[in-house]
Every structure is written in C-alpha cells, then in structure tokens.
Design brief:
single chain; 309 residues; alpha+beta; Glutaredoxin; Glutathione S-transferase Yfyf (Class Pi), Chain A, domain 2; 2 domains; 39% helix
Length: 309
C-alpha cells in the first residue's frame, strides 16, 4: 500500500506485521464527518468527490451506496488504475483524476495535509470547497451517504430498529471475513495463516447457517450488513480462493452465501459498479510478495448471472 513519511512517498508493501507474522491493518486517518447543516462539511450536492478503485472491496462499498441511493449526480467520482505499484494508487489516461489531473493518489493526500504520514488508501471523500480530505474510512463514508446525503424517499440501509444487530454482524464479518481474507493472504508464518483461515471459514459457516430460509442477512430486507459482506464474497472465488490461499471451500460451495452473492450482484444498481477484470488485475498484478511474476490466472466461469433458485 505504501505510506507518506514527512510528506514524501515511501513504498511499504501491503502489510504491516506484528510478532508472529500476522497482518495488521493500520487505522485510517481522516475522520471528519459530512452532516446536513454542518458549517464545515455540509451535505450539499455537487460539493464532494469520491476517489475509488473498482478493485478495492472497501472502496466498492461506497460505489454501491452511491448507486443504490441515486447519488451519482450529487457526488462525482474518479477511479484509480487497478495496478498499484511502487508509488501506490495511480491515475492514467484511461483512469484520470478529474479534479486536479494528478498522477498519484498520494499527491492528493499531501494536497490535503503536506505533513501527513498516513497510509494512502481508497476510498477518499474530498470536499471541493474546503479543498481537503473529509474522510478515508469506508465504513463511515457509506453511513454519511445513507444518513446525510440520501433523499428521504431513498432506501434506509441501516434502519433504527436493526442498528445494534447490524453492528454485531458487521463486527464479526469485518474481523473474520472482510479483513480475514487479508490476514490469511498476507500471513508470513504458518501459525498466523492457520489462525486466520480457521476463523474465516468458521465465520462463513456461521453466515451460511444464518441465511438459511432468508433472502438477506436480515430476512427480506437488504441492509448495510449485506453490502459490507458482498464485496468480499464477490472477490472470493476469482481472487481470494487462489491468491490468498483461502482454498478450503469456494463461496459457490455454500448454497446460501452463493445465492446472496448472485442476488446482490444482479441488482442493476450494483452490477454497474462491478469490474471483475479490474479486480483480478489489481490483486494478481499488484502484490509482488505473493505473485512476483505477476501472472494473472485464467478467469473462472463464475455464473453470477445464473437465475436464482
């Protein structure tokens, strides 16, 4: 991923390790909030710009929300190139920075704060008027889109009666599934890998059982929990199963999880946010520590458009 050190880019790979070879994800840095009527960052159409990668599951959440909540005219977007190399996420002629014409995303971070030493990640929510980064934490950005930007008639993806239950599901899904695939893929000891992959498949078994007889994680209603899980499920069979050695079972081997993956993918507002070629290019090409020859394997026939039922 790389990070900024005293305003200068320093590549640092994708991982940080603690004792025992375990992958440790650093906290995001910019954590301001957009709110209706806020004097610093009010929720105004046309004021904000999203920086995303089609490849990144965390950024993908924000693209899905922007589409589902009909905010595409309200919030503009730039998409980085899927190959993340020596200087991190970059822009190219076919993946341009629409605001400043930058070459690399790290230049946006130093534009916001020349002294920052944080990791350079997507998504980024940029305030065009304040000319700064508001937030680069996907879990918070999607809640801003849902609670502050969305029209009153838009779907409520975190309804009040379900909030505590959704947060409980999200907590386990984040630790053992969303981040769990990375903990398995970037482990540098057998013990760390075994620990991560065991927790991952225990969580997938739990989710499979939870979905029995249900359309979504909370019965018949699409919620934040489904979207946060979906972006990992979508990438699992074409990437994580091979690339991150999460090879005990495919998502296609879980009838309920596979049905959920296809059900969410087949929503028109979601499908248009998906680029499987960019997903596969990013992971197999960018992670030299895992795939030093940058060979992108042949794509499996996933059958995401297969009829449900």
């Amino acid at each position: 991923m790389g990070k900024l050190i005293e305003g200068q880019w320093r590549p640092s790979g994708m991982t940080a390790e603690s004792e025992g070879g375990r992958f440790v994800r650093e906290e995001t840095t910019f954590r301001d909030w957009v709110r209706r009527g806020d004097p610093d960052h009010p929720a105004e159409a046309g004021r904000y710009h999203l920086y995303v990668a089609y490849a990144c599951p965390w950024a993908h959440r924000t693209l899905i929300y922007r589409s589902l909540l009909d905010l595409e005219d309200a919030i503009s977007v730039s998409v980085v190139h899927p190959h993340m190399l020596e200087q991190g996420w970059r822009f190219t002629d076919d993946h341009p920075d629409h605001l400043f014409g930058l070459d690399y995303l790290h230049q946006l971070y130093t534009k916001a704060d020349p002294t920052t030493t944080c990791r350079v990640t997507v998504p980024v929510l940029w305030d065009k008027e304040k000319r700064t980064i508001v937030n680069n934490e996907s879990a918070e950005i999607i809640r801003m889109l849902d609670e502050e930007f969305a029209h009153d008639h838009a779907m409520d993806l975190r309804p009040e009666p379900l909030r505590d239950a959704i947060d409980e599901v999200n907590a386990r899904v984040y630790e053992d599934v969303n981040n769990g695939v990375y903990r398995a893929g970037f482990a540098t000891t057998q013990e760390a890998y075994d620990e991560a992959v065991t927790a991952l498949f225990e969580a997938l078994d739990w989710l499979e059982a939870r979905l029995e007889g249900k359309t979504f994680l909370f019965d018949e209603r699409l919620t934040e929990a489904d979207v946060r899980l979906f972006t990992t499920l979508l990438r699992f069979d074409p990437v994580y199963f091979v690339h991150f050695k999460c090879s005990k079972r495919r998502i296609a081997d879980y009838p309920n999880l596979w049905a959920l993956t296809r059900r969410v993918y087949q929503m028109p507002a979601v499908k248009k946010t998906v680029s499987l070629p960019e997903i596969r290019q990013h992971y197999y090409y960018s992670h030299a520590s895992i795939n030093p020859h940058r060979i992108v394997p042949i794509a499996p026939d996933l059958g995401l458009d297969a009829p449900l039922g």
